[in-house]
Write a structure and sequence with these properties.
Layout: H1 2-8, H2 15-26, H3 31-39, H4 47-60, H5 66-72, H6 78-88, H7 94-103, H8 109-118, H9 120-123, H10 127-137, H11 142-154, H12 161-165, H13 173-186, H14 192-201
């Protein structure tokens, strides 16, 4: 794993080679390797290698990586900040949840949206999270509305189907597209008729 990180940081490596390395790294589940990535890998100076390390820790759901990820939230690199938020969304720990709920209110739209998406895994089991997502779903900010719909759909929150159904008539096509996608994910019986009706009305990309 250490060698893979070093090679990812090597500017001479080809794009195809680094893609293969990254795929191998993010699939790592060996305990000793993950400990090294948490303790040392999160300090690597190369952006591409660091992003791969962060993704690996998130996919592995490493609770012990939360302090390092929280530190990376203060990085000067926006990509690193967003990656750290996304990684927190993969960790089933109350500390990660607390950070995500706080970050969902960030003034930085990219961070806020990433945090909302990260709440998907919690939406079904935490009533407060579901309520917060429903609040965004019914708000005026289109991007937050879409992110909330995605989180509720991915999280399998069946009780949100009625609120998402109402988005089928939204003036913004991206919101309607998100509503269609997430109602399909939820497979709620109450959504079948309005979903069919809306799909029949839509043209172009929403019918695909």
């Amino acid at each position: 794993v250490r060698r893979a990180v070093e090679l990812l940081a090597d500017a001479r490596a080809s794009e195809g080679f680094t893609t293969l390395l990254r795929r191998a790294l993010v699939s790592t589940r060996e305990e000793a390797a993950l400990i090294w990535l948490t303790d040392t890998g999160t300090s690597v100076g190369h952006l591409g290698a660091l992003l791969a390390v962060i993704e690996t820790l998130g996919r592995a759901g490493r609770r012990d990586a939360i302090p390092a990820l929280e530190k990376l939230l203060r990085s000067r690199e926006p990509e690193v900040q967003r990656a750290a938020v996304a990684a927190l969304g993969g960790i089933a720990d109350p500390a990660a949840l607390a950070l995500l709920r706080k970050l969902a209110g960030s003034r930085d739209p990219a961070i806020a949206l990433a945090a909302i998406h990260g709440l998907a895994r919690w939406a079904k089991e935490d009533a407060k999270v579901a309520a917060e997502l429903l609040h965004d779903l019914e708000g005026s900010n289109v991007d937050r509305k879409i992110a909330a719909a995605d989180a509720l759909g991915e999280g399998g929150v069946a009780s949100s189907a009625g609120a998402i159904v109402r988005l089928l008539d939204h003036r913004e096509w991206r919101v309607r597209a998100s509503a269609i996608l997430n109602l399909r994910r939820l497979r709620a019986r109450e959504a079948i008729e309005p979903l069919i009706g809306r799909i029949e009305k839509e043209e172009g990309r929403l019918q695909d």
